[in-house]
Amino acid sequence: MPFQSLLFSREPDWRENRPGLRHRLPENVTSWTYEAGSLTRRLRSYYGSAVKVEVIYHRWLTPFLSERKLLGQAEHRYCLTREVMLHADGMPLILARTIIPKQTIRSAHRNLSHLGSRPLGEVIFSYPDLERLDLQVAALSPSAWRPKALELGDIRAPVWGRRTVYAIMHQPLLVNEFFMPGALAI
Fold first, then answer.
1. Per the confidence metrics, is the pTM higher than 0.90?
2. How many Cβ atoms from other residues are within 10 Å of residue 7's Cβ?
């Protein structure tokens, strides 16, 4: 069986977005966690065209248990899994993992399965009916990351991230985004 992730050595321990959580997060993490718009757009407003996407992993596989539950997917249902690093001139900004069920790809009139090095945010935030359904937060210690992610992200301390369930035309997709120091500094 292939790895479920080239980023994580185990499934992150996510916290529900409950009242008061916002006040327990570091200020710079709060700003990114609760950003309502595209993170790519926010990064580009600071770093400009230097922001690029490096695709780490792109294949059909069975998501983690909590991902399947959030997306309403059966145990052996394959979803498109895409893991990427957004960077500016090689400086890591965001490590991201996206899970897209087949029915979401079919219902979206733009091809979500062939993004290549195009940022997902540029595509999904162009949909007029994009909905944000759920938000969760996690902090991952260096031991929770696979060696490739540790190297790509130059991870040496806990890294905060969010995962968001979006819906396009009422069909879900899940986006996990982890904020590297280069993003948190702006």
1. yes
2. 26
The per-residue pLDDT for range 129-149, each reduced to its tens digit, is 899 999 999 999 999 999 999
Residues 6+ apart with CB under 8 A from 182: 87, 88, 91, 92, 93
Query: H/E/C letters for each residue in 74-139?
Result: CCCCCEEEEEEEEEECCEEEEEEEEEEEHHHHHHCCCCCCCCCCCCHHHHHCCCCCCEEEEEEEEE
Both tokens of 44, joined, read 């580009």
CA distance 92 to 107: 32
Residue-wise pLDDT tens digits, 60-96: 999 999 999 999 999 889 999 999 999 999 999 999 9
